[in-house]
Amino acid sequence: MTFLINSVANVTCAVIAIVVSSTVKIIGKKNLLIAVQLIIGLFCILINVVTQDILFAIFLSALPVLGLAIGPVNAYAVEIFPTHLRGMAVSLSMMIGRVGSVFGANVAGAMLNAVCEATFYFFGGFLMFCGLLSFLMPGSKKKQTKEAITTKL
To answer: CA 83, 88, 77 angle in degrees (round to 5)?
Structure first.
């Protein structure tokens, strides 16, 4: 049974990652960021209430899909900051992200020992809050075509 749950979890995670990464051009980076955070936050909360092993494995295996949010965050860092600061902006966003992951892993470990269910409610709620904050991000800048530039002249 453990092998079956692990296999389903890994296949589900791979399918989600492939589908999301192949549709990023269609749905846009802002929508991807919002959707990933809200859906994974909901999955974190639902982990506590699901009674079927397969659903539990699917919800738990979806957590690594949060790695898909790194691309849009770095794209926003490149888009928002001027050219001479872009390298530093991406470096700082990656560094802060790694510091946050170390801090989050330590907090999650301590919380899992003390209050297991509250851990998933806390991180799920935090992810959903971050998803709502992502609505404040600027929309994607559309590149102007040659025709649009000449019509403005």
So the answer is: 65
- How far apart are the two ends of the chain, measured CA to CA in Å? 67
DSSP letters for 54-113: HHHHHHHHTGGGGGGGHHHHHHHHHHHS-GGGHHHHHHHHHHHHHHHHHHHHHHHHHHHH
Tell me the average confidence (pLDDT) per consecutive run of 10 residues in the chain, 153 residues long.
Answer: 78 78 82 89 92 84 79 83 89 91 91 89 93 86 56 58
What is the total residue count of the chain? 153
Q: Judge whether 111 and 95 are in contact, CB under 8 Å.
A: no
For 124, other C-beta atoms within 10 Å of its C-beta total: 19
Please state the pTM of the whole predicted model: 0.77
Q: What's the confidence (pLDDT) of residue 20?
A: 74
The backbone torsions φ and ψ at residue 137, rounded to the nearest 5 degrees and listed phi first, read: -70, 150
Distance CA 16, CA 104 (A): 23
Question: What per-residue confidence (pLDDT) applies to 150?
Answer: 58
Q: How far apart, in whole angstroms, are the C-alpha atoms of residue 116 and residue 137?
A: 33
20 Cβ contact partners less than 8 Å away, ≥ 6 residues apart: 32, 36, 65, 68
